[in-house]
Design brief:
By secondary structure, this protein is an alpha+beta fold. Helices cover 28% and strands 18% of the residues. It has 12 helices and 16 strands. The chain is globular. This is FERM domain-containing protein.
């Protein structure tokens, strides 16, 4: 009888304990386990629950973090992605800059591949599954890990790269995998010590899909040479190796070459747009500074290059590269992802004096939260140059995107143009770039107590500003000519 009462008390105590806890998944194989079986918010940590929502309207969302831990959150059934994302960042005590790199992914119902959640839209309208399972992942990868001072962001980036390499999203050879695995082993185990369980640790460590005796020996050799290095030091060494790997920071989509049917991957990242073949590696790297416009229509994603390019890229002058993707939905998603990466890595903040007209694609600059500071070195960083792959068809602008049913004017100056089943996004606006050359500090000089020094005024730029403010024109349009007419009183 005493045993029965003791078991009953244990059951009551278990139900009274908080139901939202960090759960560790050692395998971290992408199959997320539900951290709780039934919806019960009694004893839930306040950091994991949306405030001011009745329990009957709450819905459970399980989120897996890059380090293979997970937590359960409770939000309104009609809540937007922003609500869940804010709860996660507060729960993890993540910095604003670190959160700006991140996004939430969920498995696509048809392809089972991860898709990024749009924070501005209700979750229920995006996720069709009854079980809300998300993964916190890097949407924008840190370009220079050495400049990232936040320890949590750097640690999560290591774990993200570890998963990308294991799942072959970042292709690399076995020698590099062994070297990177040794860095992780030094961070997690400390100095190398001969142990019978060392081999089991390597097999379970998600370092490679094929682990044999030779691979373990290579890791041991590298590990022995890392003695007395701290976890922070080896994490930085790990990221310095990852950042030069071909597909680091790229989100890719599968397609085929139109001429020979060879499978290729088209990726978008901080450096620009790249193409990758399994047998040849990265075959093309199109830096953002070379691209004039990107567009999509139906299944086609098009990249148009500037009419004037450096001698090393002269073969692409005025040309367009067209990729035929699996579906129109895939083309649109890749197009949006390209816009977001260009906005995040290349564009400076626009001048606050210019009032922009509302646009249908206003979400383009709002789908990510925060923006790391742009330094001169990061803006001048360009992609490594690769020879233009002859198998990628480069064609003239007049041949792009379905001539029979073309309804878009690709030569417009507007940054975004929408038309039926497609859209065009311009990466270069002459007037906008001119306005962004003025540093923000000069705009706040009038607010200081000391008398400001008389600045050097660019009369052309100031005149253009006045015209825009007076006529409320689109700030991306260029003023080509100004006529001054003298009245009779002159």
């Amino acid at each position: 009888m005493a045993i029965v009462i003791e078991n009953l008390l244990d059951l009551v105590w278990a139900r009274a304990t908080p139901s939202v806890t960090m759960t560790h998944h050692p395998s971290c194989d992408g199959k997320m386990a539900m951290a709780i079986s039934a919806l019960s918010t009694s004893g839930v940590d306040d950091r994991c629950r949306q405030v001011g929502v009745a329990e009957k309207y709450l819905r459970m969302a399980v989120v897996e973090f890059p380090d293979c831990t997970a937590a359960t959150f409770y939000i309104h059934k009609n809540a937007s992605g922003t609500v869940l994302f804010d709860l996660i960042t507060k729960f993890l005590l993540m910095s604003e800059k670190g959160a700006g790199y991140m996004g939430l992914t969920y498995p696509d119902r048809k392809t089972n591949k991860p898709r990024f959640l749009c924070n501005d839209k209700p979750i229920a309208k995006q996720v069709e599954s009854r079980d809300w399972q998300f993964t916190l992942a890097f949407k924008f990868y840190v370009s220079e890990p050495a400049e990232e001072s936040d320890g949590l962001t750097r640690h999560y980036l290591v774990e993200q790269c570890r998963r990308d390499i294991y799942e072959r999203r970042i292709p690399t050879d076995s020698e590099t995998q062994a070297r990177l695995a040794a860095y992780i082993a030094q961070a997690e185990l400390g100095n190398y010590e001969q142990n019978e369980d060392y081999g089991d640790y390597i097999r379970r460590g998600r370092f490679s899909t094929s682990v044999d005796y030779e691979f373990i020996v290579k890791i041991q050799e590298y590990h022995e040479g890392l003695r007395d290095l701290t976890p922070q030091q080896v994490e930085l060494l790990y990221l310095n190796v990852c950042k030069v790997l071909p597909m680091y920071g790229c989100h890719s989509i599968e397609t085929k070459d139109t001429e020979n049917g060879v499978p290729i991957e088209v990726g978008v990242g901080g450096v620009g747009i790249v193409t990758y073949e399994a047998t040849r590696g990265v075959t093309n790297s199109f830096a953002w500074k070379l691209i004039d416009k990107i567009s999509f229509r139906r299944k086609y994603f098009c990249v148009k290059f500037l009419p004037e390019l450096p001698p090393t890229d002269i073969a692409l002058e005025g040309k367009s590269v067209v990729f035929k993707l699996a579906s129109s939905t895939a083309a649109e998603r890749f197009y949006k992802l390209a816009i977001e990466h260009h906005e995040f890595f290349r564009l400076l903040r626009p001048s606050p004096r210019i009032k922009r007209k509302s646009s249908f694609f206003h979400w383009a600059s709002q789908r990510f939260r925060g923006r790391p500071s742009h330094t001169a070195s990061s803006l001048s960083t360009t992609a490594r140059h690769f020879d233009v792959n002859e198998t990628i068809r480069t064609i003239g602008l007049e041949e792009t995107m379905d001539d029979a049913d073309m309804t878009m004017d690709m030569s417009v100056l507007d940054r975004t143009q929408v038309s039926g089943e497609g859209s065009v996004y311009s990466l270069h606006g002459s007037l906008e770039d001119t306005l962004r050359e003025a540093p923000e500090e000069e705009q706040d000089e009038s607010d200081t107590l000391l008398p400001p020094l008389e600045p050097v005024i660019d009369h052309d730029v100031e005149l253009t500003r006045a015209i825009l403010e007076a006529t409320n024109l689109n700030p991306n349009m260029a003023v080509e000519r100004i006529e001054v007419k003298c009245e009779s009183s002159c």
